[in-house]
Each structure stands twice: as structure tokens, then as C-alpha cells.
Design a protein that fits this description.
Blueprint: H1 2-26, H2 31-50, H3 55-77, H4 83-95, H5 110-136, H6 138-150, H7 152-172, H8 178-209, E1 210-213, E2 223-224, E3 228-230, E4 233-236, H9 245-253, E5 259-262, H10 268-279
Helix pairs in contact: 1-2, 1-4, 1-10, 2-3, 2-4, 3-4, 5-6, 5-8, 5-10, 6-8, 7-8
Amino acid sequence: MMVSDILLTIVAVFGVGAAAIHDSKTREVPDWISYSLLATGFGIRAIAALGPETASYFLSAFLGLGITYLLGTVMYYAKQWGGGDAKLIMGLGVIYATRPSFLPTTSTPFLGILFINMLLFGAVYGLLWGIILAWKNRKKFTTVAKQLLQEKRMVKTRITALVLAAITFTASFFLPDLFLRISIMTFALIILLYPYLWIYVKAVEKACLYKYLKPQQLTEGDWVEENIVVNKRIIYRAKNTGIEKEDIQKLIKARVNRVLIKEGIPFVPAFFFGLLATLLQIKIIAFP
């Protein structure tokens, strides 16, 4: 098992590393990388199962694939990941369907630790990326943020958050346990800051991530943000899934001038750092 797990990890690190570089440059993850991880993961596990390993070493790959397929699908339809990100996670699901034998045993499944670490790195990475985008587009970002702050519903939300935070913070003083008191105070701070975080995220999206492209510039998987109308007829309806090649060709034939899309943040570098942190046993969260 040791040799096969080392081989699987080498494939994973180089595969995700290559995908991270490509994603940073092009905002896309090539399918051949994800499919290579899937094929190699199944192949190495099948060969190992014919030798020293049991059949479960191979069969567990299907369970890992199923779990990561569900996770990837949820994140894709929530518009948090692109299709390439979801496929890459599925490849890792096959490779790390079982805990690598060279790592210490924990009660928490290895895939669970890996996924949580990737999300944590993704959250920090997304925040930093958003700050950079907001600074580069600061005039437009400031204008959009002010508009969102002045919206009636956001004014009500901020007032509600302030009241709830004040009540929660005050209640914390009646708790005898110091740790619990600090935890409740922290929760009150999160309640207070949440509306502003939401405004920040939405302002970054509207000011920095939305742009118009010609149909010829579209690629499969791009998120189209508005219905496309030609001669008072909707020829493409915006949806939660990325645009397909057939739809792109339809837009080109209809001579559509421009299409509004939401450009995604390249998250695969965060996946890569999360993978390395998990393999190096860097404890972001103390897992049992």
C-alpha cells in the first residue's frame, strides 16, 4: 500500500499543481488533467488490488468519486466553482478515497480533512483576491459599494444586525465561563460585520467580475448573467450552469453583439495549497 499511495500522491501533487498554474493564467482547468487524475487513480488502485491490496482498495475509489461528485455538483450549481474545479475534485476523490498509509491515522476521514482545508484556503484566497480586484477597480468598486449601502433593504439589515449583535454581546456578560463568554462575543462581532461582508462581496462581483464579451470570445462553461434577446425573442436564457458549445454557436449565428458574463476567481491555486497543507499535516483545524 505504501508504494501505491506514494505514487497516487505524486500524481495528485503534480496534477493539481499543473492545473493551478493553468487556472491562474487562463481561468480554466483543462479536462485532460482532471481525467488523467481519474484514470490514474483507478488504474493504480486496480493494479494494487491485483497484487498485495484487497479489492476494497480499488472499490473505495467509487465511493470517493461519488462523494466528491456530490460536493462538486453542489458547489458548481451554487456558482462557487466552475466545471473544471468540480472535475478536479472528483479526481482527488478517487486518488484519496483511502487515507495514505504514510500519514498517521485519525478518526476524521482523510477526504473530509482535505475538503475542509481546501475550503479554508479558498476562503482566505478569495478574500485576498477580492481585495486586489477592489483596489485595481477602486473607483467603480466604491461607487457600487455606496449604492448597496444606501439600499433600503441593506439599511434595515444593518440595523437588525446591530441590534442582534448588541443583544448577543450584552448577554455574554451573564455567562460564568470565560471561554464561552469570549465565543459569544466573537459571534456577536460576526453578526455585526456580516452585512458589510455581504456588501463587499457583491460590490466586488458587480464592479470587478462582470464583463461583456463577444460570442466568439466565450468558452464552454462561462456563466452568462442575463437573458439574450434577439428580435424580441429570448434565444438564450440565463441559468445556474455554464453555457454550452451549442449555445455559443447559436449566439454567433444570431450575430449577437455582446454577452454579459461573470468571470470566476481562479480557485485551483487554493486547492493546491490546501492539498499541500493536508499532506504536510499542517493543522489549520485540530481534527480528531
